[in-house]
Amino acid sequence: TRTAAFFDDFVEALKLADVAVLAEIYAARETDTLGMSSRRLAEQIPGAVCCGSLEEVASQLAALAQPGDLILTVGAGDIYLAGEALVGLS
Length: 90
Hints:
Blueprint: H1 2-5, H2 7-14, E1 21-22, H3 38-42, E2 49-50, H4 54-64, H5 80-89
Parallel strand pairs: 1-2
């Protein structure tokens, strides 16, 4: 419900990134009844990449990252695991 309520705000904020790499939306004690998805967000964000797993997020980031880049793993749930996996790939 949070993604639905703030959909346009999420899109505008994520457009500010050079590249937005999106994981699946973390469902905190909810079932999606509103048709929200990371893919739907990505369709509104130029150049966004939508990943099906945290491992895929880490792989995408590793492929895209250049020296000096700032990578933020922001969200709910276990998204921090993508950052930890990325550090392990270095």
